[in-house]
Amino acid sequence: MKKIQIPLMVVFLLSCISTYSQDLDKTITNYGEDNAIKYLQPLADAFGANLNSGLQRSAQISKFGFHFNLSLQAMYSPLAEGKKNFTPVGEDMKVPTVFGKESTDEDYPDGLWNTDFFPLAVPQLTIGSLMGTEVTIRYFAFKNKEIGEITLYGWGIRHSISQYILLCPVDIAAGFFHQKFSIGSSIEATALYYGIQISKQFSVLILYAGVGWEKATLKLDYEYEDTNVSFDLNGENKTRMTIGAGLDFKYVKLYLDFNLAPQNVISASIGFGL
User: Fold this and answer.
1) 3-state DSSP: the chain helix, strand, coil percent, rounded to 5?
2) pTM, full prediction
3) Exposed e or buried b for every residue in 6-31, given b needs 16+ CB within 10 A?
4) Alpha-carbon distances of 30 from 36, 38, 145, 150, rounded to whole Å
């Protein structure tokens, strides 16, 4: 197998919007593009699944009136054992993925993180409403001397469906969301999500559920030794079901939900607003 070297640049976002990134400059030997994709695919799966979480909570959207909620959305993707190793092309052995342990074969690289989960945390602002419609924005940006600017920008819109149903016993809403995450000019992730949600409030307790359709892509494009290396990784999640509960204390709102999909996600948030 022809030996090529692929330096990796990845970012690992931790809770409380604490973000650190490094140019890992790891060398992958004996790796063609197919094996490089297998090595990184679990990162695309978990990262995309996290980005598309925490976008919808209570489906109650008033027809008119001002409300806002500034929140911290935290996501946690548990990693099955199959996400931590793979079988290289033409081989019959298992080697680590990006989330795996130290490699036992010197021809294949170690995992970058020996972990059972992948977390993400992002700030989120929701403002409404006009004719039962609200807007959600996610954003942060900062510069790293080594790799350039790191940016997340996302927006979404939700609309109340239950306002059109006379004496509807539950709140129903539908929404669409788009997000883009980039690290310098080398890594770009995009995420799309649209879904339908129902909820019911009992005093301070909110119960909610929903179904969504999603797509996430992680693109790597960089120069190495005068050669351009470029390929796309598509997240495995196409649909998801969400079941969750929240506590609405008027000015403080807490939520926790479980997102059932090929890559599951546990999502929680704390928000402040009206």
Assistant:
1) 10, 55, 35
2) 0.86
3) bebbbbbbeeeeebebeeeeeebebb
4) 10, 13, 31, 30
* Tally of domains in the chain: 1
Encoding tokens for residue 50? 């996290």
* Residue 203 near residue 228 (C-beta atoms within 8 A): no
pLDDT reported for residue 39: 84
Mean pLDDT of the region 72-78: 95
Distances (CA, A) of 187 to 10, 84, 113, 149, 222: 8, 22, 19, 11, 8
Residue 250 belongs to a domain = yes
Domain of residue 144 covers 9-273
- Does some domain include residue 264? yes
DSSP 111: P
Q: Are 218 and 44 in contact (CB under 8 A)?
A: yes
The pLDDT of residue 15: 30
The answer to whether residue 1 sits within a structural domain is no
pLDDT digits (tens, 9 = 90+) for 220-254: 776 655 666 677 889 999 999 999 999 999 899 99
Q: Is residue 3 part of a domain?
A: no
